[in-house]
Amino acid sequence: MPAPALPALQVSPALPRRVDLLVVGLAESGLRGVPEAVEKAYVKRFGMGTAEMATSVGARTAAGSRRTLPATGDGPQLMVIGLGDGEPGTEDLRRAAGSAVRQAGTAGAEGRSLAVSLSFGTTSVDELEAVAEGALIGSYRYAPISGKDAPTPSVDTVTVLHPRSTRGAGSTDVTSVAPVVARAVVTAREWVNVPPNLLYPESFADEVQTLVKDAKVTVEVLDGPALTKGGYGGILAVGGGSSRPPRLVRLSYRPRGAKQHLALVGKGITFDSGGLNLKPGDSMYTMKCDMAGAAAVLAATHAIARLGLAVNVTAYAAMAENLPSDTAYRPSDVLTMYGGTTVENGNTDAEGRLVMADALARAGEDKPDLVVDVATLTGACIVALGDRTSGLMATDDETADRILDAAEAAGEDFWQLPIPKETRGKLDSKVADLRSTGGDRYGGALVAAAFLREFVPAGTPWAHLDIAGPAYYDGKPYGYVSPGGTGVAVRTLIALARSLTTRS
User: Fold this and answer.
1) Which residues are the active-site residues?
2) For the whole prediction, is pTM greater than 0.85?
């Protein structure tokens, strides 16, 4: 199930020979990036410049708004897209580029592929990279499963106009970096969007092995017997109700010269029915997205290796299908997790923390400098932060700030939440070392984080990313986001790895 092809990316100081659509940005300060030759063509043809023409057709600065100007006859079609209020930042540019390419892609229904150029007046490599990433990510459309021929890409080439070198301070070329980052996001999106009868623990593990063949990454896959031998009681319990056994996938990337070791852990519930604590039918429909955390850490690890970043990375993806049957685990069961900790299960629909606990305990044995886990863990986090902001909880503020800095660089929204000291008391059990859930519904996201923290070695910096809200989007498209999986956290993890390459 390979992800759809991305457009070819080019960077040029001038319009290329082939360009079907030229996109320029509109900020409060005016139109940005209109090439001089295009401006002259509009004055010659219509007796007015592009700014006056844009005003006459109702172009607005509102983010994502667009207007198409009349063509001059001998040049490309011109689209004006809003960059938002105030001076646009890198994320504004990223979203505008994604929106432009996504909307331009509607021409694909006519069976015609387009060459799109974007000219937003970028002046820095960071801005250039944001535009390139947004354009490539925005081109993604999930192809429905059909017996008919698959449609060809509607945008086959993206050219970003930029006057300066495409290399950043670290001598990284945007035309090499942006496609790798975009491919990782699109890969995570595609995995989330695949129906659960086609993506289940075994097939998901196979997908991962295929993905990393082109990178210097070693893969280890633990199947049912190996999980039993290793004592992974959480993963085995959650996957025990399904005829399709669970898996634990471990990726290892060890480049020369790396001084920092980053461990990534992802929740990979390929479908969550709630188990014996069955979810309502309407709540179950989108639960193919419950493996978005695993998708994020696996795709990000592959990208980190492809980029050759000098940081050691070990990634764990705990994969299981949570279904009710005569072999399913029960509320009140006592499970022995990896490493020996016993857990009284409070609710079979709180399964994610159980598979994550096993993976976190195993990751701790690798003695990483930093552990980051990513999971669609709690509905409580959606209640608290909505569907576009992910929750962040950590062992300390320094670790939280490191993640927040990476998220800001990547253009993703995270908000730090606390793990109050008294929260741990809610996990006390009379029959085991601890309970998997609290005794009430208050602070559910915080209780889940407190549970996970019990499986992180003392003294190891750790951050928990609850992406339950932003992982899957079912509304109208915006920016580079289309309905379905979003690939959230992938860019943040890559940015985090980048930042760790600068640490001694």
Assistant:
1) 279, 353
2) yes
